[in-house]
Specification:
13% strand, alpha+beta, 5 strands, 135 residues, three-stranded antiparallel sheet, two-stranded antiparallel sheet
């Protein structure tokens, strides 16, 4: 049986892949904050989080996450200000504030929660790859 930390790591992998695929067109994805375009898998793109991954309530929130280049996500502290503006533009004014509030809520995932989410994102990734005709 996998440990909770291994399940979390596996879910992170599938969720990240889903976000990058969701945001891609023809296998290419645009950085949510700077506009750089690269391959969703091999181009140095990551799943950027507006609210840090340390906040479990928003760690797997699809509105909290978008494809980001390594430069923005790792070396420019996630470009939080630009990320907030882009979230509000995409999902409506106040969404970034709602995510900031939600992130501070306490949430703990069970083994079953992780296993369910892993199964869900694996199937969604498979479906998206087929729909988009990639890999």
């Amino acid at each position: 049986m996998k440990s909770i930390s291994k399940l979390k790591k596996e879910l992170d992998k599938w969720f990240s892949l889903y976000i990058r695929l969701r945001d891609s067109q023809n296998g290419l994805v645009q950085c949510f904050t700077c506009g750089k375009v690269a391959h969703y898998k091999k181009g140095g793109m990551q799943c950027g989080h507006f609210q840090s991954r340390r906040f479990m309530a928003t760690r797997y929130d699809e509105q909290n996450c978008s494809a980001q280049c390594v430069a923005c996500n790792m070396f420019r502290a996630g470009e939080q200000y630009r990320f907030a503006l882009a979230i509000d533009a995409k999902y409506g004014d106040g969404t970034a504030d709602e995510l900031q509030f939600k992130a501070r809520q306490t949430m703990k995932f069970t083994r079953a929660d992780y296993e369910e989410k892993i199964s869900y994102y694996k199937s969604v990734v498979k479906k998206l790859k087929k729909e988009k005709g990639i890999e």
